[in-house]
Amino acid sequence: MGIDLKTVKHISKLSRISVDDEKAKKLEADLNSIFSFIEKLNELNTEKIEPLTSIAETNLQLRKDEIKSSNIREQILKNSPEENKDFFVVPKVIE
Amino acid sequence: MSDIIDLTLVELVDKIKKKEISSKEVTAAYVDRSQKSKKLNTYVTEDFEIALKKADNFDKNPNYEKKLPGIPIAVKDLFCTKNLRTTAGSKILGNFIPTYESTVTENLWNAGSILLGKLNCDEFAMGSSNETSFFGNVQNPVGENLVPGGSSGGSASALAAKLTPTTIGTDTGGSIRQPASFTGTVGLKPTYGSCSRYGIVAFASSLDQAGPMTRDVKDCSLLFEVMSSYDRKDSTSVDFKRGNYLKELNNSIKGKKIGIPKEYRVEGMPKEIEDLWQKGINIIKEAGAEIVNISLPNTKYALPAYYIVAPAEASSNLARYDGVKYGFRSKGENLIDMYEKTRSEGFGNEVKRRIMIGTYVLSSGYYDAYYLKAQKVRKLIKNDFDEVYKKVDAILTPSTPSSAFKIGEKTNDPVSMYLNDIFTVPINLAGLPAISIPAGLDSKGYPLGLQIIGKAFEEQNILNIAYSIEKEINFKNKINDWWM
Amino acid sequence: MAKNQSEYLIKRNNNEYEVVIGLEVHAQVLSESKLFSSAPTKFGAEPNTQVSLVDAAFPGMLPVINEFCIKQAVKTGIGLNAKINKKSIFDRKNYFYADLPQGYQISQYKNPIVGEGSIVLDLTTGEKIVGIERLHLEQDAGKSIHDMDPQNTLVDLNRSGIALMEIVSKPDLRSLEEVNAYIKKLRSIMRYLGTCDGNMQEGSLRADVNVSVRKKGQKGFGTRCEIKNVNSIKFMQMAIDYEANRQVDVIEEGGTIDQETRLFDIKKNETRSMRSKEDAHDYRYFPDPDLLPLELSDKFINDLKKNIPELPDEKKKRFIEKFKLSPYEANILVSDIETSKYFEEVIEKSDVKLSTNWITGELFALLNEKNLEISQNPISAKNLSKLINLIKDGTISGKIAKSVFEIMADEGKDPQIIVEEKGLKQQSDPKEIEKLIDKVITDNPDKVKEYKSGKDKLFGFFVGQVMKVSGGKANPQLVNEILKKKLL
Lengths: 95, 484, 488
Hints:
The structure holds 3 protein chains of 3 kinds.
Chain A: H1 5-14, H2 21-38, H3 73-78, E1 88-91
Chain B: H1 2-6, H2 9-17, H3 23-35, E1 43-46, H4 48-60, E2 72-76, H5 103-110, E3 114-119, H6 153-160, E4 167-171, H7 177-183, E5 186-189, E6 209-214, H8 217-227, E7 257-261, H9 271-286, E8 290-294, H10 302-317, H11 335-346, H12 349-362, H13 368-388, E9 394-398, H14 414-418, H15 425-430, E10 434-441, E11 447-453, H16 459-473
Parallel strand pairs in B: 2-3, 7-8, 7-9
Antiparallel strand pairs in B: 1-3, 4-6, 5-6, 5-10, 9-11, 10-11
Helix pairs in contact in B: 3-4, 6-7, 8-16, 10-12, 10-13
Chain C: E1 9-12, E2 15-28, H1 67-79, E3 87-88, E4 91-94, E5 104-107, E6 117-123, E7 126-139, E8 143-145, E9 152-156, E10 163-169, H2 176-193, E11 205-215, E12 225-230, H3 233-252, E13 261-265, E14 270-273, E15 286-287, E16 294-295, H4 298-306, H5 312-323, H6 327-334, H7 337-349, H8 352-370, H9 381-392, H10 398-411, H11 415-422, H12 430-443, H13 445-452, H14 459-469, H15 476-486
Parallel strand pairs in C: 12-13
Antiparallel strand pairs in C: 1-2, 2-10, 2-11, 3-16, 4-5, 4-15, 6-7, 7-10, 8-9, 11-12, 13-14
Helix pairs in contact in C: 2-3, 5-6, 7-9, 9-10, 12-14, 12-15, 14-15
């Protein structure tokens, strides 16, 4: 189960992290070494095992349908990289 | 002044309540020492001026009913602190100032304590040596150019160097216990769900847990009491009866059954660790507890499973760091370009590696083979513990397979770095509580820890066992303030 | 309830193609707060004023589920005769977009809260049952605004995190009429239940359309394309029509259909491939580790079942049986909950037949003309009821009633008051009518002679004259009776 350069480029696109060719090569090596370590799991037959769905020993807590958050626009936009008192601003999307 | 910094948390609280010392004196002592210790690089953000003011205010209007009255505390920079920069050790949050407080730190302040500043850590809690932080490496006070462990490296270092009387960290695969072992301090990773994750920068949601890092077990019990609460803002928070851990602390472990898992005896393990483990076993026997040999057959699959589950969850948790709403943003020609540049420049290499692994194991065609499989292995590991807990009350193992290594020694090989967590990771996968206490020094004079693992929600039990071993071992850290 | 054969076929070079349509409807849940946060959900607020820290995905923020939204989804499932799954799981759907602050949407993938169900469509040719594949809960995204700033896109997160029910139909639809009927019925059921207001203009009901074609009689389905961004039934139909024809053209020319997502361009009236065709989204679904599986008890589900109101199909049946309405009339009256409520209020005190006629006739004509919804109706149920009663008890004639109705539409007044003010009371005193008739007979001796000599048609003339001299107020029935006698 090897990871090739093409896969590295594909994953980096999916995770929105740009990699130049040099970095991609290093990643290829690193990821392959990590994956051969992970492959150890193939030794186990887990066909009949149920996966763990949650480690928390409790039930899903249900919240009452009440409004508890008032207008906090200032707080929400306070850390925004672009100055705008009403909106988040991002470069145009090409569609 | 030097006396103050030698007091444990419990002693400090006592002296403050008795009005023998003031919060201002304590805070000033710690600020002073912290300012002289920049070489260790434990602080990312200092809040000393405001801390001194708060201490002053406390003294003017003291409340001695509080559990941590006027106690200054520095915390891991993974906890969101209102109006004080919170970076998670990353460039991508390098300028982020939360407008809200995490529940765990809220609990600390409500108990009367005062924030000293934010402590360095591996970026997004990913690391075992505090060498992945954007804000530079942390030095282990135990010796020059030694790693303190990670990811709570800054916390462990500041604690051991006495730059803070006590501190808190987070543990996802060993990030409290491993640095505790490397620095000769005490670290508790509580049962999953006992401390709220609200306001903690998330790494791997099903594994992350906040916990106390302290000088001794008594301090640990007190701090855990304050930290642990049921929080409706965290859907994985568990509502159980939380005890008076300090009050109930006792070193009587007569009749208890302690398991020794054979699978933790790994090939090539240094003899010193084996010896320390044996020392612990003997102490327990002397104290009247019974030693039981047990087997946790799936132990060797824990680390590979962890390195599937944790990166997978992290790859999704870190998707929000996109330069849109907060944090670092790199200019881009269009949205996608902006994302790619921001995340490429904003994240360090280890974080990028883990995001990629995580993205890959969740991707189309691989989910069953990796993520689903890892979750099944997790079930097997949990089953192992459930089985042995029918026979024993707790389990004793070493905390780490080695003592602190040199800075730079393992940075070229990610896998060798991952092996640091071999004894701690299974516990996170199973959601159980475990505490690391210093057990002795190796031939180089570096600390090594012993780990006591307990049943879910039975922290009192492992605190008691740790307490009894601690008393016997009477460990003294040999730190000579070389950095000052 | 026979399955009707679709008449919607595309003919090309001696081949006939059937169009296979499936709809994925996104319905915003009516609730005070959002699915996983306590921020408000009202439409039309100032940008970014209904956003909580959780909605904006700040570090350390965690989802906490809204119990009421769960109930709304279950109720909708019950209204769709669907299987309610006692255990369901919330999964993260991972992708990057400016209005998706978390970088993932909390949705449900393999274990949705509601399973298979069905909807009955009311078509001109009869009823047709369409299958529902599933219903699941998920978060809505924020809004990206592309046209306010030439260089940038502006993002408003008010909508981010509002609860959506995604309702997926089976590919059972075969025509544009069926698509219309499906959306209308689905919308109606949810409005009856109060689980979604179905307001397509405000975006609380949106749909993605899946279209494929196959030669008539062919087994199996052709490759389908998904059309996004159609926010009205009319555009949906236009898009389907264009796309189906496009696909037929491709096949007829010997090509194959690429499975892809397309957008409908309302200006050019055509679908086109979305430019962002990045290896089809790999959403990397996995169970959200910040949440636990949702487990519903029998009691929870049964309590909701007990409180389900009468739904359109049931109500239609009851109207037909109890009130002897025709299916056509019943359909109109139950098509929207506001209409049925209105009808039921009117018939509390008024004759059913008259009420039916006036509502389906005059009232709907008025609403159509003024482009109003029944909820914006200027004539209250109470007042319409009064008007009908005035006709029934003979106070005014049907013809006069129409004038009163118009005045009511403009002024919203009580009909009794209008009748008083304008003196429109019907003249029903036989003695008075006799007087009027006598006058008309006296004034028109020639016509009387003609009528008596066999010109029966002139009867209408006399009636007309009597109505004229009475200012339209004479009771037509009485006029008829008495006039007949007088002209013998």
